[in-house]
Amino acid sequence: MTIMRLGRVQLRVPNWEESIEYYKNVIGLIETYRDENHVYLKAWDEHDHHSVILEKADSAGLDHLAFKVRFDEDLDTYEKKLNEYGVATERIPAGTRVAEGEAVRFQVPTGQYIELYSQIEKVGNGLPLVNPAPWPDGLVGMAPPRLDHLLIAGEDVEGTTKLLQEVFGFSMAERVVLEDGETPLATWLFVSNKAHDIAVIKGPNGGLHHIAFYLEEWSDIRKAADIIGKNNISLDKGPVRHGITRGTTIYFFDPSGNRNEVFCGGYIAYHDNPTITWTIDNVGEGISFFDKDPGERFTTVFS
Amino acid sequence: MTIMRLGRVQLRVPNWEESIEYYKNVIGLIETYRDENHVYLKAWDEHDHHSVILEKADSAGLDHLAFKVRFDEDLDTYEKKLNEYGVATERIPAGTRVAEGEAVRFQVPTGQYIELYSQIEKVGNGLPLVNPAPWPDGLVGMAPPRLDHLLIAGEDVEGTTKLLQEVFGFSMAERVVLEDGETPLATWLFVSNKAHDIAVIKGPNGGLHHIAFYLEEWSDIRKAADIIGKNNISLDKGPVRHGITRGTTIYFFDPSGNRNEVFCGGYIAYHDNPTITWTIDNVGEGISFFDKDPGERFTTVFS
Amino acid sequence: MTIMRLGRVQLRVPNWEESIEYYKNVIGLIETYRDENHVYLKAWDEHDHHSVILEKADSAGLDHLAFKVRFDEDLDTYEKKLNEYGVATERIPAGTRVAEGEAVRFQVPTGQYIELYSQIEKVGNGLPLVNPAPWPDGLVGMAPPRLDHLLIAGEDVEGTTKLLQEVFGFSMAERVVLEDGETPLATWLFVSNKAHDIAVIKGPNGGLHHIAFYLEEWSDIRKAADIIGKNNISLDKGPVRHGITRGTTIYFFDPSGNRNEVFCGGYIAYHDNPTITWTIDNVGEGISFFDKDPGERFTTVFS
Amino acid sequence: MTIMRLGRVQLRVPNWEESIEYYKNVIGLIETYRDENHVYLKAWDEHDHHSVILEKADSAGLDHLAFKVRFDEDLDTYEKKLNEYGVATERIPAGTRVAEGEAVRFQVPTGQYIELYSQIEKVGNGLPLVNPAPWPDGLVGMAPPRLDHLLIAGEDVEGTTKLLQEVFGFSMAERVVLEDGETPLATWLFVSNKAHDIAVIKGPNGGLHHIAFYLEEWSDIRKAADIIGKNNISLDKGPVRHGITRGTTIYFFDPSGNRNEVFCGGYIAYHDNPTITWTIDNVGEGISFFDKDPGERFTTVFS
Description:
The structure is a homotetramer.
Chain A: E1 3-13, H1 16-26, E2 30-35, E3 38-42, E4 52-56, E5 61-69, H2 74-85, E6 90-92, E7 103-107, E8 113-117, E9 146-154, H3 157-168, E10 171-177, E11 184-190, E12 198-202, E13 208-214, H4 218-230, E14 234-241, E15 247-253, E16 259-265, E17 276-279, H5 283-287, H6 296-300
Parallel strand pairs in A: 1-4, 5-8, 9-12, 10-17, 13-16
Antiparallel strand pairs in A: 1-5, 2-3, 3-4, 6-7, 7-8, 9-13, 10-11, 11-12, 14-15, 15-16
Domain VOC (chains A, B, C, D): 5-119, 146-265
Family (chains A, B, C, D): Belongs to the extradiol ring-cleavage dioxygenase family.
Keywords (chains A, B, C, D): Aromatic hydrocarbons catabolism, Dioxygenase, Iron, Metal-binding, Oxidoreductase, Repeat
């Protein structure tokens, strides 16, 4: 397993100025670079140069997502495995985006573009590497330490899920199945020890349901919710516990209409965990354990 | 100021067996006495014999509420003040209900019956009075330490508010005013140092919006919400922060249709605090600070 | 009962510049006025002009403490009661200190000076009185919403306790008794619904054990402890739970040697609560419930 | 990387009956099997048959620890790598202990015996695999969901660290170095995404500093501390935050003298994280961030 984590998402944000302001001061990401059409951001505890790229665009959505692999040679290995699996790949030269090394790019059956990369400039997490304090001063907003996962949408949930499992070794933590007891409505997949690094749900091809930032604790969720209230952010659902993953969460929208999540908790996932199944009649409980009502927007709005 | 607290509520519960089970095992109250048509309950940290009486009935609602006063002679004092204020009173003899001393009973303009009492048998809080641990073993359910407050409904919000202020010295922590900037839609009143001991809202006369139990912390709110989910309790709203009182809260319904709340946080109230005003167009924020949407049930369902 | 709260402490701080910096940026109080030898500070959720006055001095300690009473006429009433009780009083004219009205001053048997006042300029809590958010932006440090209580020392614990009970109507929440089962080593007294507004412990006459600031929750205690660690503040004890009051707490020293506490939790106190007694052999548990060891400094160092 | 986690510790417990009672009712582990000299226990969210084996013995200490590997063939692979590295191995036949498959056993330079295994009977986590609630009813004590990590002691910290890194691919999250800036006093190693799965510290060969159980949140730490206080458990240190790993923690002793830890928080570790170094003069801060004083016992008592 050499995929380490969801390293990057590039989001399309039509509402340009307001979205930059939002990701910096409401979410609390740190800007590391900006050109005319892009703003590069990182969460405070990430050492890499960026994990979120905002892209000026006409409509909201996900430009691409990228997994960081551990070793440079993984690019070759995975490219070969992808090609053997029947997936076309493309090389993105180093420097195509600021601070990034070379990447391998491909498309999954649900339509999203995924990149793999191992090299990116390190800028540190704002703490010394010798005798660090547990957190730096000067954090603002919700101040998540990390980008955590995302949920992508498309018609062929099974196809994308299978590709991620077979080529990259993702394990399935949980799934929602349709009335037939087999066809997946959604799947939650991990390579790390978190309950999900990526999830896939039935929806419009290429669609994005949400990107999620990690928070440490339930008290951080309340603070995030207060910040949502104070800033008149459009709240979708929460604070609530997911039955799925057991995490506690809030869903809300950035000023461009991309759904964000702040997420904490959830069990420690191991590859020998049995996959948990949710039946379609219990999906409300799976998403929103307290009231069993995910709300209409949750299952119908994508960007 | 000799009213100490909301000492008792008597609730009508048509769904008898299920409601008893619910208050004992979901809320986690302790049964101290039972006759054919009543179950007497207390929260664990209360020393008095009971604070909640369930009454077998044909419809849900509030039979009466009662304030505990500090001194026996307060019964006479308040009876006199009430009569002078133009309110008729009645004496309820000691022993009319189990473990209770004499009470003074009267009706407020919004239609509820209120009793005042100073004597009730003490049964203790399950901890020794010498070298106690901070909490007893064996608590179940949400396990609130205390009954906290209630919200009553009626047409004449101003009348009940004024009576509570003028006869009993309640202070107004907060209020929601209608478009005219003056007429109260609801008022939050305290005699203790909690942001409310009783609140009054426009609604059907004699109506009960909710009774509230006190929880210590935001993590207790999550546990309560988990218990709501695990027991398929009908959740009304939350977890959420109130703009009003700053408390964090969940609203839900007992099996008979009486709304319950678990509540924590909220500022320390003092009588020299200025009254906070909410304008009618911000009432959503006042009730549900995160999403500004209290939901339709919240403002329309009473028992 | 018309004493509302511990309204003010005036502390002697020999380490002048560093102490000002500490109370403003580590504790997170807000400066409202300064003259050559005094800095006036308030906690964010207090409406009054100040609750802590730092006084340039040669040695640490408590200059005086003051209770805010509810009504102007309480000054006369309490002065008369004090005189009848055999305690001499003095009038401190309005304007002797900035923003304050007239005060009545007297000395308790343990040697401290206490003032009573009803008038002080109001400056607000940084939030609007109409449709306020739950907290203001720009808070720094531990950011307690309020000054909470203090613990004073002296030989005649019984004398000061009795005076506070008989003249002002304080109730005793808890006490530690010596081997004889009667003589108090310390008493915890309240007029509000908090487990203590003032406490008295055997020690040097006129001594101060600590002043305490209120925090809302256990997660705030951890943040306060992190700030203690980040700023190299001298920590005395904690985070720990008190057996006494059930509160969770940290004790630490300001740069001048005055002990501070941040405190949260503790039960809601009512005047009809039975007094809890701690025997001298369980005092360790009473102070430090987890490890039963308050440490040597805790019981020997006063300012 | 196919080591998944610290799967098992076998502890020697001279104080037999009291230790069993302690691990079941104070820690809150679940007994799955018992013979005359052994009790098998699991934490609630573990699916495997056991993670802790108590062994009746004359003295406290660690009999062995075991890592669960992902695939059966990993046993061969790692045995070969160990032998090539110059470490002798032994096969432990399936069924030597209840519910376990075959294991590879070897000794590290610091003297501990480590086993590798892939097969163990699964008994589930008390929740259904279809539509599960977030937690089961009936949990007792501190109720950690999982065994988390351990800290072993010995002379050759460098040797054991190097073996774990080179044979098994552990990464070093943090280390404490002696005055020379190089020689490790202790190292923190991970293969998962937790800040440590095993740590190694200078001390008596074969020694055990502590085993640690995972808790989800700071509020669980307070509950654990309350349980320590209520049960008169010998507390060593905490609640406190580690500078190292940023985790929050309590150390305490089982009735046989083995040190236990409950641990929560800590950053998400990735293999590309830079190693953090603590200098020997800051080790107090590394262990006990709030007061910078780990206490004498912490660095001198091993079992």
